[in-house]
């Protein structure tokens, strides 16, 4: 399968590392499509929750998949909108319960297989920056640039906690840290496409960096790996 017609950048890493925020900014700078794969899994988790199904229930979630239609579009600012059976669920998938359910659904092999072609098709049609847990190892193994973005669990929990407060959601910092660590364990130990750094990925630790510092680091890595301006 040829995934090299268009250029692709894979950014993997654990929850709360800043993948989505940084990838959005990079995509805008470079003129690429940003693909938030986590949002796709969140949409599956939302569908399960709305159907009264535990996102960790492998057989029931797998049985639900034929009835799920997932769509994706971008607004004028490049914001990725997710659609579930025609409904814009961009805001709904960011609820804390959906976030917790997303990693459970993502551990189900049938779900990953269901969404794999959707993700690859985007890379066949566009220059993309795609972030997730297994982009460089499974989804886009031939990506032009692979970055493994990380930070300590404490730093990531702090960011997640502040993000929730900014959205007007109540959150306990200690509980958020516990959830981050639990998700790390699920993502790294799952049988299907576990979170791990690809052998040819460049590690980028943002624990001690602010957003601008992290952005500059990733932009430098991309330009160095592509030998200049990525979209030349």
What value does the Rg take, in angstroms?
Answer: 17 Å
- Spans of at least 5 consecutive residues whose pLDDT stays below 50 are none
Overall mean pLDDT: 90
CATH topology: Rossmann fold
Number of helices: 9
Order of helices and strands: EHEHHEEEHHEHEHHEH
What coarse outline follows from CA principal-axis ratios?
globular
Structurally, the number of domains stands at 1
Can you describe this structure?
By secondary structure, the chain is of the alpha/beta class. It has a single domain (about 10-225), classed as P-loop containing nucleotide triphosphate hydrolases (Rossmann fold). Helices cover about 50% and strands about 15% of the residues. It contains nine helices and eight strands. It has helices at about 20-30, 35-50, 60-65, 95-105, 110-125, 135-140, 155-165, 175-190, 210-225, and strands at about 10, 35, 70-75, 80-85, 85-90, 130, 145-150, 200-205. It has a five-stranded parallel β-sheet with strand order 2-6-1-7-8, with helices on both faces. A three-stranded antiparallel β-sheet has the order 3-4-5, covered by helices on one side. A hairpin with a 5-residue loop joins strand 3 (about 70-75) and strand 4 (about 80-85).
Key structural traits:
9 helices, three-stranded antiparallel sheet, 232 residues, 16% strand, Rossmann fold, alpha/beta, five-stranded parallel sheet, single chain
Task: Draw up the topology in text.
Layout: E1 8-12, H1 19-30, E2 33-36, H2 37-50, H3 58-64, E3 70-74, E4 80-84, E5 87-88, H4 96-106, H5 109-125, E6 128-132, H6 135-139, E7 145-150, H7 153-166, H8 173-189, E8 202-205, H9 211-226
Parallel strand pairs: 1-6, 1-7, 2-6, 7-8
Antiparallel strand pairs: 3-4, 4-5
Helix pairs in contact: 2-4, 4-8, 7-8
């Amino acid at each position: 399968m040829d995934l090299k017609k268009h250029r692709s950048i894979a950014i993997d890493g654990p929850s709360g590392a800043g993948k989505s925020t940084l990838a959005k900014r990079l995509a805008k700078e470079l003129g690429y499509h940003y693909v938030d794969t986590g949002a796709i899994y969140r949409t599956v988790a939302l569908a399960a929750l709305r159907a009264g199904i535990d996102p960790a229930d492998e057989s029931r979630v797998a049985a639900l998949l034929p009835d799920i239609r997932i769509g994706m579009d971008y607004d004028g600012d490049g914001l990725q909108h997710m659609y579930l059976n025609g409904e814009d669920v961009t805001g709904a998938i960011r609820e804390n319960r959906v976030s917790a359910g997303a990693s459970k659904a993502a551990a189900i092999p049938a779900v990953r297989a269901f969404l794999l072609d959707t993700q690859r098709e985007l890379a066949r049609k566009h220059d993309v920056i795609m972030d997730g847990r297994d982009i460089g190892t499974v989804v886009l193994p031939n990506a032009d640039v692979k970055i493994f973005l990380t930070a300590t669990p404490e730093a990531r929990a702090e960011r997640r906690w502040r993000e929730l407060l900014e959205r007007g959601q109540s959150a306990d910092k200690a509980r958020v840290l516990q959830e981050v660590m639990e998700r790390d364990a699920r993502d790294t130990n799952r049988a299907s496409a576990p979170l791990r750094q690809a052998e040819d990925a460049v590690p980028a630790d943002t624990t001690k960096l602010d957003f601008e510092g992290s952005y500059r680091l990733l932009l430098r890595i991309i330009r160095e790996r592509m030998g200049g301006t990525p979209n030349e």
